[in-house]
C-alpha cells in the first residue's frame, strides 16, 4: 500500500459504468427523508431514506472494457445495501457514458438530472467527466468517479460535489516512471492521447523517469477518435528508444502491431490503466513480457465471487477483468453511508458527510461493510469505512489519500497477471 498525502485548495469530479438490469430500478420517492431511527437487531427497520443515484459508465466507446467490472461493482453494492435494510434504500438508474467521441453522456446526464438523482457514479474517463461536471455542479448533483485519475480534478471549482475513489495519476505516473527505470531502460518513447487523462499521465511519467537519469527521446500525441497512427509510430521508431510507454485506450490494438513492424520489441511496451486489458487475440502481436500499471489492491477471492454472482445473475457473462470494480463498489457504499449520517438525500448534505464516513475527519469507529458502518451511525456513532479498494480516507479535495498501484505483466497468450503492488 502506497500512502500519499496532499493539501489541496479545490475539489474534484467523478465517473463509472452502469448495469443494464431493470430489476434494480426500485420503486421509491426522491428527496430527503426523516432522521433515521436507531437500529434494533431484533426487528426490521423502517426504510426512512430513498437515495436515488445513477451511473454514467462506459457501455460503449474506447473504454467499454472497463464497463463490466465497474457496473458489477455498482450492482453488488446496490444489492447488498438494499438487502441490509438499514433505514436506507438505493434506487438506481444506469446509463452509458460512451467516450468523448461518441458522446453518449450527452443523453445519459440530462436524463439522470431530470430523474432527480442525488449523485452520479462516473464517468470512467477523466476527459468525459470534464465535459459534464460543471453541468452537475450547477444542478447541485454529486459526481463520484471510481476511475478518474486526472490531477486537474483536485483543484476543480466543484462546490464540494466532486469525489473519487481512484487516486490521481500523480501516483500511477510515479510508480510507472520508476518501474521503467528499475527495469534498466535509459531512453524511452511515449505515445499519448491528447486529453486530460493522457497529457496528465504523460507529464508525470516523463518528469519521474527523467529524474532517475533517463531520457524521453521521442514523444507523440493523437486525438481521441483518430484511426491512423503511422506518423506517431514513425516519430517514436526513428528515435530508437529501448522502451515505449503507451498512454491510450483501445487504440492500443492498432498501435501495438505498427510499433512491432517498425522494429520495437513488444516485450518493452509499458501500458497504463486505460489499455491494460486481457487482450488475447484482439492484438495481433505477442505482448509477452510487456508490463503495465492499474490503480487498485489485490482483491479478496470472496469479493470477486460476490461480484461475479451479482453480475452473472443479472444475465451477463462472467468477468475476466476487475479493474475499478472495488472503487465502484466503494463509491456507492460511501454515498449511502454519508446519506445515512446526514439523515438526508440532499446532495450537499451527503457531500458534507463523505469525508467523515471515509475516516478523513473526525474520530470514527473503523468498519469494513455497509451494514457494520450503518449500525454505528444508527447507534449514534461516527463510522470510518475502510473499503474494498483501500482505507480511502478522503482529503478536503475529495481525493483518497491512501491507495495502491498494481503492476502487471503479459504472458504468451496476451493476458496479464499481477506481479507486484506498490
UniProtKB/TrEMBL annotation:
This is ABC transporter substrate-binding protein. Coiled coil: none annotated. InterPro entries: BCAA_transport (IPR051010), Leu-bd (IPR028081), Peripla_BP_I (IPR028082). PANTHER family: LEUCINE-SPECIFIC-BINDING PROTEIN, PERIPLASMIC BINDING PROTEIN OF ABC TRANSPORTER FOR NATURAL AMINO ACIDS. It comes from the Bacteria. Keywords: Signal. The keyword Signal applies. Belongs to the leucine-binding protein family. It comes from Candidatus Microbacterium phytovorans. SUPFAM superfamilies: Periplasmic binding protein-like I (SSF53822). Pfam families: Peripla_BP_6. Residues 50-358 form the Leucine-binding protein domain.
Amino acid at each position: 500500500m502506497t500512502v500519499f498525502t496532499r493539501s489541496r485548495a479545490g475539489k474534484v469530479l467523478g465517473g463509472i459504468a452502469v448495469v443494464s438490469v431493470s430489476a434494480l430500478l426500485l420503486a421509491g420517492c426522491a428527496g430527503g427523508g426523516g432522521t433515521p431511527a436507531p437500529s434494533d437487531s431484533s426487528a426490521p427497520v423502517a426504510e426512512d431514506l430513498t437515495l436515488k443515484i445513477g451511473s454514467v459508465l462506459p457501455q460503449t466507446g474506447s473504454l467499454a472494457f472497463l464497463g463490466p467490472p465497474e457496473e458489477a461493482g455498482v450492482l453488488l453494492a446496490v444489492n447488498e445495501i438494499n438487502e441490509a435494510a438499514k433505514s436506507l434504500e438505493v434506487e438506481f438508474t444506469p446509463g452509458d457514458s460512451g467516450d468523448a467521441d461518441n458522446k453518449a453522456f450527452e443523453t445519459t446526464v440530462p436524463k439522470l438530472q431530470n430523474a432527480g438523482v442525488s449523485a452520479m457514479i462516473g464517468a470512467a474517463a477523466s476527459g468525459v467527466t470534464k465535459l459534464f461536471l460543471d453541468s452537475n455542479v450547477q444542478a447541485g448533483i454529486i459526481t463520484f468517479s471510481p476511475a478518474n485519475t486526472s490531477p486537474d480534478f483536485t483543484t476543480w471549482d466543484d462546490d464540494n460535489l466532486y469525489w473519487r475513489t481512484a487516486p490521481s495519476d500523480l501516483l500511477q505516473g510515479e510508480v510507472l516512471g520508476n518501474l521503467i527505470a528499475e527495469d534498466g531502460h535509459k531512453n524511452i518513447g511515449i505515445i499519448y492521447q491528447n486529453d486530460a487523462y493522457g497529457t496528465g499521465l504523460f507529464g508525470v511519467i516523463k518528469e519521474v523517469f527523467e529524474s532517475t537519469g533517463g531520457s524521453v527521446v521521442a514523444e507523440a500525441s493523437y486525438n481521441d477518435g483518430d484511426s491512423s497512427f503511422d506518423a506517431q509510430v514513425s516519430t517514436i521508431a526513428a528515435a530508437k528508444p529501448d522502451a515505449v510507454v503507451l498512454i491510450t485506450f483501445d487504440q492500443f490494438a492498432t498501435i501495438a502491431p505498427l510499433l512491432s513492424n517498425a522494429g520495437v520489441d513488444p516485450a518493452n511496451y509499458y501500458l497504463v490503466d486505460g489499455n491494460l486489458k486481457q487482450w488475447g487475440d484482439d492484438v495481433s502481436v505477442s505482448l509477452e513480457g510487456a508490463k503495465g500499471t492499474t490503480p487498485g489492491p489485490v482483491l479478496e477471492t470472496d469479493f470477486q465471487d460476490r461480484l461475479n454472482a451479482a453480475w452473472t445473475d443479472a444475465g451477463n457473462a462472467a468477468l475476466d477483468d476487475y479493474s475499478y470494480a472495488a472503487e465502484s463498489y466503494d463509491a456507492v457504499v460511501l454515498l449511502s453511508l454519508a446519506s445515512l449520517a446526514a439523515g438526508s438525500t440532499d446532495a450537499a448534505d451527503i457531500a458534507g458527510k463523505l469525508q467523515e464516513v471515509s475516516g478523513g475527519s473526525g474520530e470514527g469507529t473503523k468498519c469494513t461493510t455497509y451494514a457494520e458502518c450503518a449500525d454505528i451511525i444508527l447507534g449514534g456513532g461516527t463510522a470510518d469505512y475502510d473499503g474494498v479498494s483501500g482505507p480511502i480516507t478522503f482529503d478536503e479535495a475529495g481525493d483518497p489519500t491512501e491507495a495502491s498501484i498494481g503492476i502487471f505483466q503479459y504472458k504468451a497468450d496476451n493476458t496479464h497477471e499481477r506481479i507486484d503492488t506498490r
